[in-house]
UniProtKB/TrEMBL annotation, chain A:
Signal peptide: none annotated. It comes from Krasilnikoviella flava. Pfam families: FtsX (PF02687). InterPro entries: ABC3_permease_C, Membrane_comp_ABC_pdt. It is found in: Cell membrane. Residues 308-419 form the ABC3 transporter permease C-terminal domain. It is a multi-pass membrane protein. This is Putative ABC transport system permease protein.
Automatic annotation (TrEMBL), chain B:
This is Putative ABC transport system ATP-binding protein. GO terms for molecular function: ATP binding; ATP hydrolysis activity; transmembrane transporter activity. It comes from Krasilnikoviella flava. GO terms for cellular component: membrane protein complex; plasma membrane. Keywords: ATP-binding, Nucleotide-binding, Transport. It comes from the Bacteria. Gene3D superfamilies: P-loop containing nucleotide triphosphate hydrolases. InterPro entries: AAA+_ATPase, ABC_transporter-like_ATP-bd, ABC_transporter-like_CS, ABC_transpr_LolD-like, MacB-like_ATP-bd, P-loop_NTPase. Residues 7-243 form the ABC transporter domain.
């Protein structure tokens, strides 16, 4: 019987058999395609496996927080709590404060809420107290420390040792990973230091298996360095990172209801039972008013990345498509024979697709193995996480690889199935005429897609931008054949080689269009990336506020306890320190700032009333002297104000200098004088003073940390008094980072009492606004480099295919007397044709693509961010459009042999 | 001859192109091929011989007239039905490059059966039997590249007549072979026809046409003569030239 299912089975049996043999017969082509399919599959499998392994599971969280046996871990705050089931987030419920209370009382209350049969095991812990461990020259800062009764059998079971023993008095156990970092092992001595004069030596008794409960780095016995506080929580009332911690030992699970009861006592609970059997979302009070991230939000967040991945996968399909096209072309006679033996169009499609399926399955399997294997190696070798292979996503990625290869074979398969069988059997090319609808549909999709992406960008809709970009690119891909055909009609005015190349490209659109589309998509991605990168750089620069002109040394008071000002005596000490450390610093200019009377609890701030303006709304925090600065124009060159001449003249004329756009049309600016209660952090008074003002710079930024700079007259008008805010200097030699750090260390020593990492008198060096992250030239190089490689690969593919397929035509040219180099010129022109058309169209569409993403950034939040503007790097883009085709032509010229292989012409 | 007619062409015309490029490949051709009969078609290049074969196998459709294979009117069938016709009833043998290089001899012969939905085992059994009839069952696992031209043509004949297929259309099947091998291939073809198949053979070579029961002469798309078994190659040539 030969029903449809049986025929389908037979068709695919033949197709897969043919595909397998075809893949083996053409190993070079198969390898090329397989690599291009396997690479994204391997990358995806690697990333997914690594991320999955790093992701928390109930098992990993339970092991990390509770070890193998404890039922729960409790820490206490001073207020009733609500928490997420895994206790990663928690907060007060607004109930009455219930602490601090004596630890024993707290412990008794907590124990009373435990299930019958369970008991509390008390530990002391610290993580934020600045405990450092020194061993040799190495230091481990703020490790997680636990201290408790290690003779308890439950405790001994919980802390598993990789080596050695649990510590007794004068000893410490280290986690194996931290011991490796400190390069110590059992029996070595380490020094525990809280402060310079509070050091404690200890011997390493053992190495704990990672992760130990509570991710403990250091484990001490009960007679350790931590002292039991009198109360729980501590004096600050809310700090649950230091102080007592209780494990729940026993056989009875701590349920969600138990957790809720313990929350009422101010406890935050990690429960093994709750981790494995979390309550429904509606039973978690913590989520009230904090709804979990909606699907829509997640889509908005991931849509741009999804669009980029989709376009990248499209690029892969386009790059390997021509390989299948040429495979199908070379198999034309085999396909015609299959048709003669009774194969339908479906049969012929299946035969070409079969090669794609075979290569796709093989390459995806290899890519999956490599990706998962590499991730397993990395996870096991370099992390403490347990390897977790997410088979469902991995299977999906495998399927994507198969779809990539099969999708790339689809158009060649479709085209091959429509070939004129009689013509092919007679030894002629069997290509059928090209249809008009793809170019019409493609053009429409392109216009709709890019217009939609721009519109979605204006609306701040990430999904719309992503969908528009993908649809627009797909439209251009569809239209490529028609575009080549249209350009082919213009060939008559070109020289022979270019005329030949363009007409050949137009005649063999099945081969040309995918490669052209690959160049187009690559260049579109590159130019889109360049537009976005340039716009982001401009945005980053506008977001900043230089503290001074480039290379100017700035020493500013930054201690809020003193209202960020220096007394005269402190100023003298600063000058002494600076001259000691940097003898060649030159003159130190004192910088006067406006401050109100400061009594330790009241401060006065003065700023431009700039509600809604860029200065008030957007600029990010910076270091330097805390303004407003009072100046008569003398310091303008050092302060790095925009338009220094205008600013200096304005100050000399008694006008305040503000960022352009923050002054009013009548040439004045409103200075807001706000009095603050520094204890309550609340304003206690406010008045506005209008002063003559001149705006300088770009309203969008960059601003300047010293704005507003006001003359003495304006300072008097505010009713505040000038104070010393710091110093600026222009050393003969620009201060480097090492000198800055040395000076900062000296000033920290002179003005101690600050937290680690902060300063009361801070040193900074003026610099022009810089982009965040990697420098722009690097991102530009990466973008252009990757796009260039892809585009050149596509151009090379089409040139190679054209060189192979044009042999009869080239033989004819040779027969009529064409020079041997004609072949090289024609192949180079064929590569150039694809590169030129692809670059121009890709460049243009890429600008639209980049603009859509930039507009999205500008309008993504309720308040548009005007610092995001579409910046098109025309010189770089123009150079790309010239260099890329030139490279393609040169490469094709260099790799093509001028000698022509003799061609056998088949009789018709 | 009272055997049933396997192929009947009635007033068949085939016109390629249109306007100035119009070419009349066949003009009102009438032809019958019965089961157990081998008919040779001779004529100069461009006379329409290949077009005749393409129409007979449903690779092409007539501009006018009817082509009937068994009970099926080829002109009224759509592409799928014509493909089914080739799977079930018609086999082709071309001048050379008859076999799919990526498939073994056996797989080439199973091709129409598998495409028609036969199970792999049943298709292999029938194909092995078909190869045995042309004396090549021991080369079943060889790829075409590892076979001689004559062996490949015999495999093609086996494929043309595998399973229920009873009409073999041979287009210069010996054109790429030396005379000895060509004779061997013609012998196989004759044997298969004698075993009950119908054959339509296009050839330039009078010696090979002599294997046929009947010879049809074509010129400019018109049947100009038809004769029974030839007296010899020379007489056939003279007759064609005189016509």
């Amino acid at each position: 019987m030969s029903g449809p299912v049986a025929r389908w089975r037979g068709r695919w049996r033949v197709a897969l058999r043919y595909g397998w043999r075809d893949a083996r017969r053409h190993r070079g082509r198969t390898t090329l395609v397989a690599i291009m399919v396997a690479l994204p599959v391997a990358a995806g499998s690697f990333a997914t496996t690594a991320l999955w392994s790093a992701r928390d599971t109930p098992e990993t969280v339970a092991q990390r927080e509770l070890g193998p046996d404890f039922q729960a871990a409790l820490s206490v705050t001073g207020i009733p709590m609500s928490q997420t089931p895994d206790a990663t987030s928690h907060g007060g419920t607004g109930g009455a404060v219930i602490g601090p209370r004596p630890v024993a009382a707290v412990e008794a209350d907590l124990a009373a809420e435990l299930p019958d049969g369970d008991r509390l095991v008390r530990f002391l812990r610290t993580q934020d107290a600045g405990f450092d461990v020194h061993a040799g020259g190495l230091q481990l800062s703020t490790p997680a420390v636990l201290q408790g009764d290690l003779t308890d059998p439950d405790v001994r079971r919980a802390f598993r040792l990789r080596e050695g023993a649990l510590p007794s008095e004068g000893e410490v156990a280290l986690s194996a990973s931290k011991a490796r970092e400190l390069d110590v092992t059992v029996g070595d001595r380490v020094t525990l230091a809280r402060a310079e004069d509070d050091e404690l030596p200890a011997t390493v008794s053992g190495l704990l298996d990672d992760p130990a409960p509570q991710q403990t780095d250091l484990l001490f016995p009960a007679a350790g360095p931590l002292a039991l506080p009198a109360t729980a929580p501590g004096e600050d009332g809310y700090d649950d990172a230091d102080g007592p911690l209780w494990f729940v030992a026993g056989d009875v699970p701590v349920t969600w209801d138990d957790v809720l009861a313990l929350n009422e006592l101010g406890a935050v609970v990690v429960s093994r039972d709750v981790l494995f059997s979390p309550p429904p979302v509606e039973a978690v009070e913590f989520y009230d008013g904090r709804p979990p991230e909606s699907t829509s939000d997640q889509l908005q967040q991931w849509a741009p990345l999804a669009a980029v991945v989709a376009v990248a996968l499209l690029e892969v399909v386009l790059l390997i498509g021509p390989a299948f096209a040429v495979g199908a072309r070379r198999s034309a006679r085999s396909l015609a024979l299959i048709a003669a033996a009774g194969g339908t169009r479906r049969s012929l499609r299946a035969v070409v697709l079969g090669t794609g399926v075979v290569i796709g399955v093989g390459a995806s399997a290899a890519g999956t193995l490599v990706g998962v294997g590499a991730a397993a190696f990395v996870v096991v070798r370099w992390t403490d996480a347990a390897l977790a292979v997410p088979w469902a996503p991995i299977t999906s990625i495998f399927a994507v690889g198969v779809v990539l290869a099969t999708g790339a074979a689809w158009l060649p398969a479709r085209r091959a199935s429509r070939a004129d069988v009689v013509a092919v059997l007679a030894g002629r090319r069997g290509e059928t005429s090209y249809r008009r609808w793809p170019v019409v549909v493609g053009t429409a999709l392109g216009v709709v897609g890019f217009a939609g992406a721009l519109a979605a960008g204006l609306a701040g809709q990430a999904m719309g931008v992503a969908a528009g970009v993908v649809v627009g690119e797909l439209g251009l891909v569809f239209a490529c054949g028609g575009i080549v055909a249209a350009l082919g009609r213009l060939a008559r005015h070109l020289p022979l080689t270019w005329r030949f190349a363009l007409r050949d490209a137009a005649r063999h659109r099945g081969r040309t269009a995918p490669a052209l589309a690959a160049v187009l998509v690559a260049v579109a991605g590159a130019s889109g990336g360049l537009v976005y990168s340039s716009s982001q750089t401009a945005h980053d620069q506008r977001s900043q506020a230089p503290v001074a002109a480039p290379d100017v040394l700035v020493i500013g008071a930054a201690d809020p306890e003193t209202d960020s000002q220096l007394t005269r005596e402190q100023g003298d000490r600063v000058q002494d320190v600076v001259h000691d450390v940097l003898p060649d610093v030159g003159r130190l200019y004192p910088v006067t700032v406006l401050r109100g009377p400061y009594d330790g609890s009241t401060a006065t701030s003065v700023g431009v009333a700039a509600s809604g303006s860029p200065e008030g709304g957007y600029h990010e925090l910076t270091t330097g002297i805390v303004g407003p600065v009072v100046d008569d124009g003398t310091l303008v060159p050092l302060l790095g104000l925009p338009s220094p001449d205008v600013a200096a003249a304005a100050l000399a004329a008694g006008r305040a200098v503000v960022l352009a756009g923050t002054e009013d049309d009548d040439g004045t600016a409103a200075l807001d004088v706000v009095t603050w209660d520094t204890d309550a952090q609340e304003p206690t008074g406010h008045r506005s003073v209008r002063v003559p003002a001149t705006g300088v710079g770009d309203p969008l930024g960059p601003s300047n940390a010293n704005f507003p700079v006001v003359p003495a007259s304006a300072a008097q008008a505010t009713g505040t008094s000038p104070a010393l805010g710091g110093f600026v200097a222009m050393p003969g030699t620009p201060p480097g980072e090492a000198e800055r750090q040395t000076l900062q260390a000296a000033l920290d020593e002179e003005f101690p009492g600050t937290d680690v990492g902060s300063c009361t008198v801070c040193v900074s060096v003026g610099a022009d606004p810089q982009p965040y992250g990697s420098p722009q030239w690097l991102s530009t190089l990466l973008i252009l480099g990757s796009a260039g490689i892809l585009a050149l690969a596509a151009a090379w593919i089409v040139a190679a295919l054209a060189a192979t397929e044009s042999r009869p035509d080239l033989a004819t040219l040779a027969a009529v007397g064409a020079a041997p180099t004609t072949r090289k010129r024609i192949v180079a022109a064929q590569a150039g044709t694809v590169a030129v058309i692809g670059s121009v169209l890709g460049g243009a569409s890429g600008v639209a693509l980049g603009a859509a993403f930039v507009l999205f950034e500008r309008f993504r939040y309720a308040e548009p961010d005007p610092r995001w503007t579409v910046e098109v790097p025309w010189p770089v883009l123009g150079a790309t459009l010239v260099v890329l085709p030139s490279l393609a032509v040169t490469a094709a010229w260099l790799v093509t042999r001028s000698r022509l292989v003799l061609t056998r012409r088949l009789a018709s | 001859m009272n055997a049933p007619v396997m192929l009947r062409m009635t007033s068949v015309t085939r016109v390629h192109g249109q306007g100035a490029a119009e070419v009349h490949a066949l003009r009102g051709v009438d032809l019958e091929v019965r089961m157990g009969e081998l008919v040779a078609v001779m004529g100069p290049s461009g006379s329409g011989k290949s077009t005749l074969l393409n129409l007979a196998g449903g690779l092409d459709t007539p501009t006018s007239g009817t082509v009937t294979v068994g009970r099926d009117d080829v002109g009224t069938l759509d592409a799928k039905a014509r493909a089914r016709l080739r799977r079930k009833h018609v086999g082709y043998v071309f001048q050379d490059l008859n076999l799919v290089p990526a498939l073994t001899a056996l797989e080439n012969v199973t091709l129409p059966l598998e495409l028609d939905g036969s199970s792999a085992r049943r298709a292999r059994a029938k194909a092995t039997a078909a190869l045995a009839t042309v004396g090549l069952d021991d080369l079943a696992d060889r790829f075409p590249d590892d076979m001689s031209g004559g062996q490949a043509q015999r495999v093609a004949i086996a494929r043309a007549l595998v399973g229920p297929r009873r009409l073999v259309l041979a287009d210069e099947p010996t054109g790429a072979l030396d005379s000895v091998t060509g004779e061997a291939v013609m012998r196989v073809l004759r044997q298969r026809v004698d075993a009950g198949a119908a054959g339509l053979l296009v050839t330039h070579d009078a010696r090979h046409a002599a294997w046929a029961d009947r010879i049809v002469f074509l010129r400019d798309g018109v049947v100009i003569d038809s004769t029974g078994a030839a007296a010899g190659p020379d007489s056939l040539l003279h007759r064609a030239v005189r016509a």
